[in-house]
Amino acid sequence: MIQRSIKPRIESWLFRGKVIILYGARQVGKTTLAKEILAAFGEEGGYYNCEVQSIKSALAKEEPALLMKFIGDKRIVIFDEAQHIPNIGRILKLLADTYPSLQVIATGSSSFSLANQTSEALTGRAIQFVLYPFSYAELSGLYDPFQRLAQLDNYLVYGLYPDIVQASEEDGRVLLDELSSRYLYQDVLEFENLKRSDIIFRLLQLLALQIGSEVSLNELANTLQTNRRTIERYIDLLEQAFVIFRLRSFSRNLRKEISKGFKVYFYDLGVRNSIIQQYQPIESRADKGAIWENFLITERMKHLQQLQIRPNLYFWRTHQKEEIDFVEEYNGQLTGYEFKWKAQKNRTPASFLESYPGSVLRIIDRENFEDFVS
Questions:
Q1: pTM above 0.85?
Q2: CATH code at 92?
Q3: pLDDT tens string 237-246
Q4: Which of 56, 224, 305, 359 would disulfide-bridge 334, Cβ 3.0–4.6 Å?
Q5: 253 phi-psi bin (left φ>0, alpha ψ -120 to 50, beta other)
Q6: Could you give the number of structural domains in the chain?
Q7: Cβ-defined contacts of 316-321 (< 8 Å, 24+)
């Protein structure tokens, strides 16, 4: 069993008068984690799958006494996939206000569904967590350092979804293809009431082919024969569904800097590779540099979450094509990172250090990446 690094943080907030909301993509391990937390409470804990119609109906009643009659004498309850309960925000508010000693943990596979229903109703009453696929650091609970490092190339191709990590390559492909073609953006389709997923899938294919590059909304709209606003809307929803995320350009309004660009990365590389059906070994791939960049950024984000640090994250680029892959801004300190597939002497953009005195610039490669991500 791989212990999730976020678990102690969630447990530290139990019974402190807050509804705990756990977000994350489908099949990322939310239910498993919630049940692990619940197991410590034995019969005092209750698990409710809100996709089951009978449970959905019982929890949809906006009457505290009726809700508690259904829940019984439980001290802690899990509402799994809580976005399926109508007016879930008001339901959670009623429970929090009427029964403050009851600990509720609500999970949701789509942040936009659950957040839209809870953000106003639960102001001051909830604390939110995001669960990602396994992190490279978390795998230390399953493999020793040498075994983990030996499988790095496999993680770059097949990703770190819980069901995939220990699967064979053949089974991994089947599971990834099923995930990326059916489940991953199911919530987006339901939210938008779309009958066909063609445009969403084609958009994901285009984004998968340009990780590490700036995204042009106009170019995507022209290719997909739709309008810019639609593309922007779908990227926003895919981001909220934890399929992709944006990294925006860093600028302090210097004339030479790109100030409005953004790049798109995938939360999981296995999903990305499945979308474009490319499972070749990493060393033989022309896109290994972009894959490495995506891996380091996502793993760094997971590591920062574990440390409970929330810096501003960017990339940096000038009109003269000088570029830094990743920039962190935290407590007034700027740290830039250049990602290289192999250790080598590289010329770094001196203009960044000149423009931002006191900033730091580091090169991350396969020989020193482990400190960066764990």
A1: yes
A2: 3.40.50.300
A3: 899 889 999 9
A4: 359
A5: left
A6: 2
A7: 316/249, 316/250, 316/251, 316/257, 316/349, 316/352, 317/214, 317/249, 317/257, 317/258, 317/261, 318/256, 318/257, 318/258, 318/349, 318/351, 319/256, 319/257, 319/258, 320/256
